[in-house]
Known about the structure:
The protein is mainly α. It has one domain (2-196). Helix content is 81%, strand content 0%. The chain contains nine helices and no strands.
Amino acid sequence: xxxxxxxxxxxxxxxxxxxxxxxxxxxxxxxxxxxxxxxxxxxxxxxxxxxxxxxxxxxxxxxxxxxxxxxxxxxxxxxxxxxxxxxxxxxxxxxxxxxxxxxxxxxxxxxxxxxxxxxxxxxxxxxxxxxxxxxxxxxxxxxxxxxxxxxxxxxxxxxxxxxxxxxxxxxxxxxxxxxxxxxxxxxxxxxxxxxxxxx
Length: 199
């Protein structure tokens, strides 16, 4: 019994390492970060259905190809939004003017929405056949409509990153672990609300 449990634990750890490795390799051109992360969430979705297993390569590559165009365009759009937001923050912090605190407060709010939407975009891509406009709309609605879930996911991501800084070995499973925990958290949403994204 103990040997069996140890074997299963090692299989799960190996599966997470392999998925994380695939994700890193397919992210290497940088412009493929969104397609690669979409493929990783697709594997996690299958894990949630049938359990964690080592058979991830075929699913990952298949989903990478199938969702490449849409997730690539989403990645470009999201990079532009993030870049504009970062530039705005940079100038607002370094400039002095009347009402600066109000502008910074607004930018902080937009940054929170940006991060919140970032959490939901790819799980929506792998679960529903929607246009880019519909994906962004529903990611926005989820991010503000389910604040507890949004904040929980942000805390999960921040916690894992901090742990990885303290325990470097975690880097081997950081991406796959974040994807698994975030997807698990999101999947607990009210089914009616989650299904609404497909309407």
